[in-house]
């Protein structure tokens, strides 16, 4: 998996090994952010059912100020934390909520 646009463009990150969790494809991400074409910088974003954090990282790459990742699966949260670490995000850029949406 990779970031498709913005400051992290081309960066790859982990998806996890749980095959029941399907990451958002590049095509779907592109479609979502095309709809949000006027996505302004410094927005606060919620990545619900975040899994590995794919959509949240894309939003940060495109200028979001903060992302709240919401995920109930603890193995997905482990992958998410590993990805956060690899992106060297500041604590002020995200928080993780371990609950059902």
- Residue ranges: pLDDT <50 for 5 or more in a row? none
Note the main sheet.
3 strands, parallel
**What is the number of strand segments?**
3
Q: Roughly how many Å apart are the termini?
A: 24 Å
Could you report the average pLDDT, rounded to the nearest whole number?
90
Strands ordered across the widest β-sheet? 1-2-3
Instruction: Note the run of SSEs as H and E.
Output: HEHEHE
CATH architecture of the domain at 42-97: 3-Layer(aba) Sandwich
Pick out its properties.
101 residues; alpha/beta; 32% helix; three-stranded parallel beta sheet; Rossmann fold; 3 helices; globular
Describe the structure.
It is a single chain. β1 (44-48), α2 (54-61) and β2 (66-70) form a beta-alpha-beta unit. The chain has a domain at 42-97: Vaccinia Virus protein VP39 (Rossmann fold), CATH 3.40.50. The chain is of the alpha/beta class. It is built from 3 helices and 3 strands, in the order αβαβαβ. The protein starts with 25 loop residues before the first helix and ends with a strand.
What layout of secondary structure does this protein have?
Elements: H1 26-35, E1 44-48, H2 54-61, E2 66-70, H3 74-87, E3 94-97
Question: Would you summarize the structure shown here?
Answer:
32% of the residues lie in helices and 14% in strands. The protein is of the alpha/beta class. The longest helix is centred in the C-terminal third of the chain and has 14 residues, at 74-87.
């Amino acid at each position: 998996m990779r970031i498709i646009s913005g400051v992290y463009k081309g960066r790859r990150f982990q998806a996890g090994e749980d095959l029941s969790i399907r990451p958002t494809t590049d095509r779907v991400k592109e479609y979502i952010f095309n709809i949000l074409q006027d996505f302004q910088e410094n927005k606060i974003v919620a990545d619900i059912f975040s899994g590995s954090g794919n959509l949240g990282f894309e939003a940060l790459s495109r200028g979001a100020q903060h992302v709240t990742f919401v995920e109930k699966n603890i193995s997905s949260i482990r992958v998410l934390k590993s990805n956060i670490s690899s992106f060297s995000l500041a604590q002020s850029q995200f928080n993780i909520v371990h609950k059902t949406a």
